[in-house]
Amino acid sequence: MSEMKEMLLEVVEKMLKDKVEKEDVDVLEQGQWGEDLWRLLEENGMINIAVPEDQDGAGGDKEDLFAVYQLIGKYAAPIPFVEHTLANVLLNEVGEVAQQTLTTLHIASSVEATLPFVPWARHAEQVVVVTPEKLIVYPLADARVKETTNIASEPRDTVEVTTAPAIEVALDNATYKQLMKLITAATLIKTSGAIDKAFDLTVRFSKEREQFGRPIHRFQLVQQHLALMAGEQAIMNVAAENILATLEALETNDIGYARLRLEDANRVIAASAHQVHAAIGVTDEHSLNQYTRRIWSWRDELVKADYWKKELVQEVLASTTDIWTALTASKQTQNV
């Protein structure tokens, strides 16, 4: 990790640690959001990481920004940080200028007037819509917004667009696939942060909770759950690190298999965490469910596993190597 990135992550984590407690995440349940946190990040230039300086941004690389996504997941930050900053990354990928006002992101199979399940639409000024043929930016000032949420109480609104696009860019197949890779990378990295926190909470609880006069982490069944969680956490952390290291040239295999592997990690982490916590893990008094609900919600949003199953099958079918070599050999070996 570069010294600059390490300093950036330290600063952002300090802000999140100071400003995001359980009750700050709970405000989503009442239809509010972390406006104070958003303003703090905005005032310190964190909202404009990876936006070029000639576009009034803070500069920096995509790797710096995506590394912050892990912290957003780790603290369950109740703000549209990922959606806004990722929308601007996508705009820059297609040669458009980043948006300075709050922007959100939506994926659709075609251009439609009604957009379901748009993250944070009620707070946004515009939405970047990605389809296989086009990237479109719709202003939201006059849009009709029906407020709904995902199971983590994060805003996921239905938007009826009433104005013409402010930006419309045709996408070729290669560019569309690159955008899908970046969106998937963002989801995987922020989810790895939520997985880290769910595991940490579970380990801590297992050491504090006692049964029959001893901490429950000494019981074999609990140890089995912790071991399973530790394995999944390690796998997803390595996957996130690999993706960050290759963000400028993501391969279909690397991001696709990581996204499919995330399905297993989500299932094991959430199930084992709740098994160890028992009933208290789902109560309002405990923060575990803030992370497991996000893990479940993010799994089914934006670029889903089914997309990558199809892409990986096409990759294998087009390969001249056998399927085992395609899965296990290095790129250099496959090209020999």
Explain what you see:
54% of the residues lie in helices and 11% in strands. The longest helix is centred in the middle third of the chain and has 36 residues, at 173-208. The chain is globular. The strands form 3 sheets. Strands 1-3-4-7 form a 4-stranded mixed sheet, with helices on one face. The protein has a 3-stranded antiparallel sheet with strand order 2-6-5, with no helix packed on it. By secondary structure, it is an alpha+beta fold. The model has no long low-confidence stretch (mean pLDDT 92). The protein has helices at 3-19, 22-26, 35-43, 62-74, 81-93, 173-208, 220-245, 252-277, 288-299, 305-318, 323-328, 331-334, and strands spanning 103-107, 114-119, 126-130, 134-139, 144-146, 156-160, 167-170, 210-211, 214-215.
Keyword list:
three-stranded antiparallel β-sheet; single chain; alpha+beta; 336 residues; four-stranded mixed β-sheet
Summarize, please:
Helices cover 54% and strands 11% of the residues. By secondary structure, it is of the alpha+beta class.
